Structures are given as structure tokens and as C-alpha cells.
Amino acid sequence: MSPRARPLPVAQPFHDKSPEDKRKARRGLRRRLLLLLEERPMTVMALRLALDADEAGALVATLDDLVAAGEIAAIGHGAYTRVPWGPEMRPVVAAPLLDTVHGALTHLASRTRRKSCSVGLVSDFLGLSLEDVALSLQQLELTGLVSFNDANGEWAPIGTATARRVRKGIDEGIPPMHSPKR
After folding, report:
1. What is the model's pTM?
2. For residue 149, what are the domain limits?
3. Other C-beta atoms lying within 10 Å of the C-beta of residue 180
4. Is the residue at 142 inside a domain?
5. What is the pLDDT of residues 25-69, one digit of tens each?
6. Do the domain assignments include residue 176?
7. What interhelical angle do 130-142 and 119-126 show, nearest 10?
8. Are 110 and 153 members of one domain?
9. Quick check: 123 pLDDT over 80?
């Protein structure tokens, strides 16, 4: 070791802490990590270097908690960023097919007078099979993002306020409320 190099402080192993100390460490570190990631994406090593030795042991466990809660996301190469959208404490799941179908439905429905469109129109627009689009729309309906109109057999995106209310009901085990017909 060179004469100028200082010895690195040793982190206390997280598994040696009591359950109460683990909970306190995670809670304090959670706030600190969210503040650090609010500024810019950071690598795990940069996050570790920003922490004190007594906090370092809880880093991996707290990152796991934040990722599972959907508050941060890995962006590759060991880097993490704060998720700037959506409610906290909800996992963020990548679903390219659902996202594409929802985006196409929203785009196509906005161009019609009825603000809705058929599975066939979305399928033709995306070049996907009718089955894939139909299944995706059914999944989106369960999450409260689209609704099916029995009268005309078309799908329509649900407005933001209605979607929020439907998702809240899903989270609390309440059946979704259907919007009154206009």
C-alpha cells in the first residue's frame, strides 16, 4: 500500500444486524438512494462510494426493494435510475406487446369520431395477428387501461382519471367501475 493511500473502512455485514436494525437501515438508505438517483442515473459502485461504511451492507437489499417496488429501474451496465412516472410501490414490468397495442389503440381511436376501433384495425396497423391483438386488449382491460363496447364491438382507451380509479379498485380488490354511457 502506498504511503498516501488510506485504508478503506470496513462495512458492517448486513446479515449480522438485528431485524430492527435492518429495517431502520433500509428505511434510511431508501431515502438516501432515491435522493441520489433523483439527480441522475448512477452505477452501483458510484452509489456505494456515496454511502458510509455502516450503510453499505444494506445497499443490495435496499436496491432489490426499490426495484421490486418500481421506484428505480436498471438501465444496463450496472446503472440505475429513478422511475419518473407511475405510482410508487408498484413493480414496473416491461411488456412491449401490450405497450405497442395500447399505443396503437390510442393513436387509431383518436382519429375516429367514436374514439374507438376494432381489433382488426389495430391488427392491420401493427401487422400483428388478430389473436395477439385480441389477447393484449383483454389483458389491458384487466389492468384498467381499455374498455370494450358491446354495442359496436370496438375497443377504446380509458381516460387517465378513469384508469386511475379502476386501478385503485383493482389494488383494493374492488371490482372495476364502468363509466356511464354518454
Report:
1. 0.48
2. 96-171
3. 5
4. yes
5. 888 899 999 999 988 999 888 888 888 877 878 888 888 888 887
6. no
7. 120
8. yes
9. yes
